[in-house]
Amino acid sequence: MVISSHDIDLIYEVSDAVYVLRHGEVLAAGDPGEVFACAETMDRAGLTQPWLVKLHSELGLPLCKTEAEFFQRMHNNAIGAIKEAS
After folding, report:
1. Strand partners, 6
2. Of the candidates 45, 1, 48, the residue with the CA atom closest to the CA atom of residue 26
3. pTM of the entire structure?
4. pLDDT tens digits, residue range 27-42?
5. pLDDT in tens, 13-25
6. What is the mean pLDDT of residues 43-68?
7. Which of the residues 49, 63, 69, 77 could staple to 53 if both were Cys, CB 3.0 to 4.6 A apart?
8. Mind giving me the DSSP string for 25-84?
9. Which residues pair with 20 in a beta bridge?
10. Rounded to a whole number, what is the distance in angstroms from the first to the last CA of the chain?
11. What are the domain boundaries of the chain?
12. Radius of gyration for the alpha carbons in the chain, expressed in angstroms and rounded
């Protein structure tokens, strides 16, 4: 299936591979996490990084593919921290 969209968060979550275009020129292609993590490429394309990729880049958090995976990981980390503190 091929999807064309400016909804970067959706594309990040549902795609196995992506192409970032600018005026018909392919700026980058490959794994969504790797492509969208390149802030320079995203800036050249006039796009913003998916929010999950921004968290990964800005805060050094693990790169999650979906919102559900992110919240599950945060939940598990919180439970682990509580158990360690007990």
Report:
1. none
2. 45
3. 0.79
4. 999 999 999 999 999 9
5. 999 999 999 999 9
6. 92
7. 49
8. EEEEEE-HHHHHH-HHHHHHHT-PPPHHHHHHHHH-PPP-SSHHHHHHHHHHHHHHHHHH
9. 28
10. 49
11. 8-85
12. 15
